[in-house]
Amino acid sequence: MGPLLGVDLLAAVVSVAPVPWPDLRLATVAPVGLATVALHARAGLYRPRLTPSALLELPLLGARTAVVWCGLAAVLAAVVPSRALGWQTLLACAGLHLLVASTGRGLVNRLRVRAAIRSPRGVLVVGPGAGAAAVAGALYARPEYGLCPVGLTDTRKGGGRTGAPGLPLLLTQEEVRHAVAQHQVRDTVFIHRPEADEQGRTAALVRLLRDHGCRLWLADPEGASALTGIRTTRPSDHLWGHAVRPLLPCPTRAPGRHAKRAADFVLALLALCAVSPLLGMCALAVRLADGPGVIFRQERVGLYGRPFTLLKFRTLRADEHESATRWTVAGDRRMSPVGSFLRKSSLDELPQLWNVVRGDMSLVGPRPERPFFVAKFAGMYPGYEARHRMPVGITGLAQINGLRGDTSIEDRARFDNHYIDTWSLWQDVCILTRTITAFLRFRLGGG
Question: Which domains does the chain have, with CATH numbers?
Answer without folding.
Answer: 2-116 (no CATH), 121-252 (3.40.50.720), 255-444 (no CATH)
